[in-house]
Specification:
164 residues, 84% helix, flat
């Protein structure tokens, strides 16, 4: 005869083994509702617009660089070539959005994505989005500063070990 505690433990183990796994964000990440919610989040955060603005600034920079070099003709050619590149890149942009949407859909449920999107539509969320480029730039500078400090300290340590 099986002891009551052992029987109870065995019964619980069988129930857990037969129970369906808990739902998670990873369940069916390609669900159309999740993909749509992910794409809406990408749209609300302005990722597409940021890519387009970046390309426009790059195009202007290419032309300005050629004009500063004293060649208006070269500037016009460079801008035309960059415009052709931009047109090709538009296809990549759409592919990137699809991949980002898949990435988000793998990690978040449709409801979570909708909740995040709702936040970005609030005043605080919109302010966060508008501040993000500047925060990223300043954050990169902070990272560079500490990276340089670490390299200097590592070099100093290496010099200290090299001395007899």
């Amino acid at each position: 005869m099986i002891a009551p505690r052992l029987f109870t433990a065995l019964a619980i183990a069988v129930l857990f083994a037969l129970a369906p796994p808990p739902a998670s964000a990873q369940d069916n990440p390609q669900d159309p509702e999740r993909m749509e919610a992910a794409k809406e989040l990408i749209e609300v955060t302005g990722a597409k617009k940021q890519i387009e603005m970046m390309l426009d600034v790059m195009k202007q920079g290419v032309g300005a660089g050629a004009r500063e070099a004293g060649s208006p003709k070269l500037a016009a050619e460079a801008e035309q070539e960059f415009a052709a590149f931009t047109a090709k890149f538009a296809g990549y942009r759409d592919q990137m959005v699809e991949e980002f949407a898949s990435l988000y859909a793998e990690r978040f449920t449709a409801q979570e994505l909708k909740d995040i999107t709702a936040f970005y539509r609030t005043g605080a969320g919109a302010k966060f989005i508008s501040a993000m480029p500047e925060l990223m730039q300043e954050g990169a500078q902070i990272g560079q500063k500490y990276g340089l400090m670490a390299v200097r300290e590592l070099k100093a340590l290496q010099k200290g070990k090299a001395k007899p």
